[in-house]
Amino acid sequence: MLKIEGLRASYGAIEALKGVDVEIYEGEIVTLIGANGAGKSTLLMSMCGKPKPSAGRITFEGQDITGLPTHQIMRLGIAQSPEGRRIFARMTVLENLKMGAVVTDPRFFDEDLGRVYKMFPRLEERQNQRGGTLSGGEQQMLAIARALMSRPRLLLLDEPSLGLAPLIVRQIFQVIREINATQRVTVFLVEQNAYHALKLAHRGYVLASGKVQLGGTSAELLGNEEVRAAYLEGAH
Question: Which fold has domain 1-77+156-165+187-236?
Answer without folding.
Answer: Rossmann fold (3.40.50)
